[in-house]
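Meet today's protein:

…
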Amino acid sequence: MKRNASIDDYLKPLASCPLQCYLTNTLQVADVVEWVLEQVGRATIWQTSFSISEEFLRRLFFIEKSGKVDAIHLVLDFKATQKTLRLWPFRAHLSRR
């Protein structure tokens, strides 16, 4: 999360609004996971992704190590990841123009 950002600027407490969405590059998923756990207590996390970073995995590791979760299940789409990796050199070439 960016230093001057607050999750409360984007999301309402879950007690008043349990289902909500947001679109911003200010919040990181791990920040939202920690925010949710603060409100609901210990839980099991299911995370799906086609692109997951080492930074995010590190954050999940420390969330799990803190005892805030019962278990973390990651469902990864490796086929989409491989497609992203194949497109990366093309994207890099375009950004040099």
Q: What stands out?
A: DSSP finds three helices and two strands in the chain.
